[in-house]
Give the backbone structure.
Amino acid sequence: MTPLPPPVPQEHPERNTFLRGFGFVMLLHLALFPALFIVGVTQLAYVIPIAIRARNRGHTARLQGVLVAAGLTFLLNGLCFVALFSNFNPR
């Protein structure tokens, strides 16, 4: 009698969903590229519904990816805004 082959490991449903959530938000940011100064505020219009949907579906890794991408974007946008206007002298 021949032994059975080992079972094929099933892909975990949460695998790579962090990167999918992160990447999805970054792609949406690219759509707002012409409006760089308001990305930090306008991202709330699409990040909050995406985060709520991921939370309601139980996709915790995707929710974390969405929130990390939104947070990094907000911080980077704020840093660039401060760097740009910190030396602004209206004289």
Notes: Residues 28-85 form one domain. DSSP finds three helices and no strands in the chain.
